[in-house]
Design brief:
Blueprint lengths: L6 H36 L5 H5 L3 E4 L8 E6 L2 E7 L2 H9 L11 H4 L7 E5 L10 E2 L7 E2 L6 E2 L5 E3 L11 E3 L4 E4 L1
C-alpha cells in the first residue's frame, strides 16, 4: 500500500524558511534605512564652532566714548558701541509714535550702563551689515536697501521690519560684558 504524503507537513518547513527570509530582509532594510537617515539627522546639529562660542566675554575698557567695535559671537557680527552723552540723549528724546518697532532706549540697554549699546550687526530686512555713524538719524544705515537706524539701533526708515536685535548679555564688571 502506498503512503500518501500529508501536504500540511510539507508546507511547514517551507513556511519557516519563508518567515526567516521576510524577517531577515526587513532587518537588513531597517539597518539600511537607518544608515541612510542618520547623516541627514546628524547634519541638523549645530556646528562645533557655534557651540564653542555659546557665550563670550569681552573687555570694554579699550573702547573710547563715541567708538564702535565689531566682534564675533556665534558666527554673527555684533556691534559694541560706547555712545556719547549726546547719542544717549537723542535716543531718549525720540517719541515712541515715531518708531516703526516701538522700543525704549532703556529696553535696549542695561541700567547703569546706558552708554553701552550691544546688538547683532545684521539688518532685520535681509541680513546686510549696516554702516555705523551714518544715515539720517546718526546711527546706522543699511547700504543695500536703505534702512535707517537711530543711535539706539531702532528702525526709523526703510524696509527693515524690526529694530537691530539685542542679544542676551550681562555686565560681569564695569568693563567686562558676557554675551550669550
Amino acid at each position: 500500500m502506498a503512503t500518501q504524503s500529508n501536504p500540511a507537513l510539507q508546507d511547514a518547513p517551507q513556511a519557516g524558511r519563508r518567515d526567516f527570509l521576510y524577517i531577515a530582509t526587513a532587518a537588513v532594510g531597517a539597518v539600511g534605512v537607518a544608515g541612510a537617515v542618520w547623516p541627514l539627522i546628524n547634519q541638523l546639529n549645530p556646528d562645533a564652532s557655534v557651540l564653542a562660542l555659546a557665550s563670550i566675554e569681552f573687555d570694554l575698557s579699550g573702547i573710547a566714548t563715541g567708538q564702535s567695535v565689531t566682534i564675533k559671537w556665534r558666527g554673527l557680527p555684533v556691534f559694541v558701541r560706547n555712545r556719547t552723552p549726546e547719542e544717549v540723549a537723542a535716543a531718549l528724546a525720540v517719541p515712541m509714535s515715531d518708531l516703526k518697532d516701538p522700543q525704549t532706549d532703556q529696553e535696549r540697554t542695561k541700567a547703569g550702563h546706558e552708554q553701552w549699546l550691544i546688538m547683532i550687526a545684521n539688518c532685520t530686512h535681509l541680513g546686510c551689515i549696516p554702516v555705523g555713524e551714518s544715515g539720517e538719524f546718526g546711527g546706522w544705515a543699511c547700504p543695500c536697501h536703505g534702512s535707517q537706524f537711530d543711535t539706539a539701533g531702532r528702525i526709523r526708515k526703510g524696509p527693515a521690519p524690526t529694530n537691530l536685535v539685542v542679544p542676551p548679555y550681562e555686565f560681569i564688571s564695569d568693563t567686562l560684558v558676557q554675551i550669550g
